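Pipeline run #58 for the internal structure catalog. This entry was flagged by the ingest filter as a single-chain record with no existing model, so it goes straight to prediction. Upstream metadata was stripped on purpose; only the residue string is passed forward. Reviewer on rotation: M.T. Logging verbosity set to normal.
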Amino acid sequence: MANTQQSSSHGKLTAVIAVAAVVIVLALLSAFIWPGWALNKTTTPASAPTTSSTASGKKSASAKVPSTPTISAKALPTDATSLLKAMPDSVVNYARTDANPSANWTSTSPLEEYTMTYSTGDDTKNISLITAQWSSADDAKKQYETLTASLTGDEIASGNVKVSGKTTGSYVIRKDASDSKKAVAVWLNDTAVFQANGPSDAVTTFCQKFPL
């Protein structure tokens, strides 16, 4: 009698284990077949790239370039205005070789405008820089927005211009849509707007290292 009861209990236990196993298998199958159940749909976003900033607020250039020019800067006229005098004699290995009044943006009524050439001594690598100043920051910003809106090449870099930790404007560097080997940089600093054109790598470094 004891043996019969033991066999019966053992049989029931085996049946319970078998049923439990079937339930577990069905649960696992349904977890991956039934949409949205037990599947982790959350993806981890890629880490955002980090950039460093120079004192002027523009991103620092990563490419190594000579720190000084091999040619001398052309002297400014004795009656140069404060804006023109503020233009650096050199930017990394580029020296200012020409500076003249210009009228590219006359329709927006700047107080003054100049076009300058910065060179390494190799004319094929020259950078042309236009700068102008307006009586108000709003007028300068409108010109900046007009210029940047006209740029259609791929973006190289963009960000804020800062002076002593305070944001005073913005900058954008894009590939020249008509020549992929060249680039155009436009930046706004308070009431002044700048536009540089030239070889892509050189313009990028020039903009990022320009002190204004």
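catalog note: The two ends are 103 Å apart (CA to CA).
catalog note: The helical segments are 2-33, 82-86, 137-149, 200-209.
status: ready for reviewer M.T.
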